[in-house]
Write a structure and sequence with these properties.
Number of helices: 18
Distance between the termini: 11 Å
Oligomer: single chain
Number of strands: 0
Number of domains: 1
Order of helices and strands: HHHHHHHHHHHHHHHHHH
Largest sheet: none
Radius of gyration: 21 Å
CATH superfamily: MFS general substrate transporter like domains
CATH class: Mainly Alpha
Structural class: mainly alpha
Length: about 425
């Protein structure tokens, strides 16, 4: 088996920039979701608005597994590069459509229908974007640096979220015109075109090219008996990560604004803090995973989140928002840093795109997509109490983490084989 060529110097930077711009496209809606609900649907009550806003956001996530399988199949059969080129272009078009869409006051029920279609298209493209980018990096840089490059790549997604927050903060300032919310979406679409240009310089995975010469991805079934273990493992990774990441990035601002009645700009500050901390520690824990192992990082994330769950939410009840964000960001960053290595570890090269795109995206879409809806609704129905939220988080992390560790086995012989294949 031929050894890998030295990866191009610009590869990590190009994929990081693309991930940043791609996630800016997606998260611009996440941070606008509760503000846009009244514009695309008739407002009735705070609980109603929370549910509708959460559903609009969740739709994008729930479409990820389908798109993840479609783009993952393309990545396994036609190559990672082609899949990444099309996914970013597919993100730009519906994002532009959202920015130009008429509101409910202008066209009635056609407004939410159009928004739902755009969100489905966005989610499908994101299903292939995030996973295939991580796979391409690991296959170019090898397992000895898999955690480092994956951590840096994932931290770029947070940078895109930070840019989205900045646009929201500007668009929602007092005195801004009512149509100002449209500008970030149009800007995001333009950035998508720039991302498409950057991706044109990305080289195909040499590991994929070598494997494709010897066999075809069509000969490897995704859900065969030999591969089910990998699929279940990827689903658990997505489930646990999805729940942990959305608490500091979404729930805190919701709690401050909707429950305590604090101004949105005050709530956004806590989200900004969480994103900055999350970006930094995702890169740090990715680097650390190359030293201590990806399983240890993920297990620490699960244990820490369970041990500090009640103390953390006690801080939230006492309005110690900064400390709450710090405590909740640590396990979220740990889990997020190692999702790509965990998904690809020991997995045959020609099913990695479909496995991560479908199984991981399914876990992420169900739990990350529905977590804002579930946690926000539980809080509203329980009159501001976070007890239901704590029970929800604890249950998912405990069940998902336990299942993950029972499925994940360190297999020295297989790992050495993978090093020969990928490193």
């Amino acid at each position: 088996m031929s050894s890998l060529q030295k990866p191009p110097k610009y590869l990590l930077a190009a994929l990081m920039c693309g991930n940043l711009l791609e996630y800016f496209d997606f998260f611009i809606f996440a941070h606008f979701s509760f503000l846009l609900a009244p514009k695309f649907y008739p407002p009735i009550s705070p609980v109603h608005d929370a549910i509708i806003g959460g559903l609009f956001f969740a739709i994008g996530f729930l479409a990820r597994p389908l798109g993840g399988y479609i783009f993952g199949r393309m990545a396994d059969f036609k190559g990672r590069r082609k899949s990444l080129m099309l996914s970013v272009l597919g993100m730009a078009i519906p994002t532009l459509c959202i920015g130009l869409s008429p509101t409910y006051q202008q066209i009635g029920m056609m407004a939410p229908i159009a928004l739902i279609i755009c969100r489905i298209a966005q989610g499908m493209c994101m299903g292939g974007e995030f996973t295939n980018g991580g796979i391409l990096l690991i296959e170019n840089y090898g397992w000895k640096r898999a955690g480092t490059v994956a951590g840096l790549y994932n931290s770029a997604a947070g940078m895109g979220s930070l840019l989205a927050i900045a646009c929201v903060a500007i668009a929602t300032r007092p005195g801004m015109p009512d149509w100002s919310w449209r500008v970030p979406f149009i800007f995001a679409a333009l950035l998508g075109v720039i991302t498409f240009y950057l991706r044109s310089f990305v080289r195909e995975s040499p590991i994929f090219e070598n494997e494709a010469k010897m066999t075809s991805g069509e000969n490897l079934r995704l859900l065969s008996k030999n591969h089910l273990r990998y699929a279940y493992r990827a689903f658990c990774v997505g489930s646990v990560t999805g729940v942990l990441i959305w608490i500091p990035l979404n729930y805190t601002s919701f709690y401050m604004n909707k429950v305590l009645g604090m101004p949105m700009y005050e709530a956004v500050k806590m989200t900004v803090l969480a994103v900055i901390l999350h970006n930094f520690f995702t890169a740090v824990f990715g680097w650390l995973s190359d030293k201590v192992g990806i399983k240890k990082i993920m297990s620490t994330a699960c244990i820490m989140s369970l041990v500090f769950l009640f103390p953390a939410f006690s801080l939230l009840d006492e309005h110690s928002f900064i400390l709450f964000q710090v405590v909740m960001v640590f396990p979220a960053a740990m889990a997020y840093a190692v999702v790509h290595p965990l998904n690809s570890f020991n997995v045959p090269v020609l099913i990695r795109g479909r496995l991560s795109g479908f199984a991981f995206s399914a876990g992420l879409s169900i739990f990350a997509g529905l977590t804002p809806l579930i946690t926000n609704t539980l809080t509203q129905l329980m009159h501001g109490s976070s007890v239901g939220v704590m029970a929800y988080i604890g249950s998912i992390v405990l069940l998902g983490g336990t299942s993950l560790f029972s499925l994940f086995k360190e297999e020295p012989a297989a790992q050495k084989s993978e090093y020969r294949l990928v490193a």
